[in-house]
Amino acid sequence: MVIRMRKIMIAPSILSADFSKLCDEIKKCEKGGADIIHLDVMDGHFVPNITFGPVVIKSIRKCSKMPYDAHLMIERPDKFIKDFVNAGVDIITVHREVSIDIRSVIRKIKNYAVEAGIAINPDTPFEKVKEHLSDVNYLLIMSVYPGFSGQSFIERTIGKIRDARKYIDSNGLDVKIGVDGGVKHHNAKKIIEAGADILVSASGIFKGDIVKNIAEFRKIVESVNLH
């Protein structure tokens, strides 16, 4: 088994940000020491909600030098990869559950020289994604049903995080595990201990003082013994 040194990263999801002052909110995330800006893109088909697309992302790209991760909760991500690359994202994450060939989508992302992630919903078994992990940089484990911010963390996803950590380490894969949904201060420690590398949080960061909320997450990260 290969155990890699893990740096735990904090990824604010702007789904819960104040869109009337989005640039300021992102700058506060950077000031607070966040690592990645998580962009939840929804099309109203793959999930029952609509958020924003490449035009909005391009307009906020100038707000921060942090990496931007476009989490595409859309039915046909293959049609829009170039648009998101041109908008300035650094990572594109697509869902295993899309009906098109996921391998070709991942290959298309890599052809644009941006990093690729693959996401799985709470009801999708980890086994469904194993064969794709050697082709991606990130695995995003959804710990709520995608579509809306503010949902409670689904406890049974802890087992999936553990399974993913064990498989990735055992196979010597350089794949970071992100966890997205209901991630708050009270459960961050157990999520990290289960194997997460990236804590994606929306209301857990944007509800209240952004800088203080990120600092609290960082304090929790520093309290966890990763060995």
Notes on the protein architecture:
The protein has helices at residues 22-32, 54-60, 81-87, 102-111, 157-170, 185-194, 203-206, 210-223, and strands at residues 9-12, 37-42, 68-73, 91-95, 115-120, 138-142, 176-180, 198-201. The protein is globular, with a radius of gyration of 16 Å. 34% of the residues lie in helices and 18% in strands. Strand 3, helix 3 (81-87) and strand 4 form a beta-alpha-beta unit. The chain has one domain (9-223): Alpha-Beta Barrel (TIM Barrel), CATH 3.20.20.70. The mean pLDDT is 95. It starts with 8 loop residues before the first strand and ends with a helix. It is an alpha/beta fold. The relative contact order is 0.17.
Summarize the structure.
This protein is of the alpha/beta class and 227 residues long.
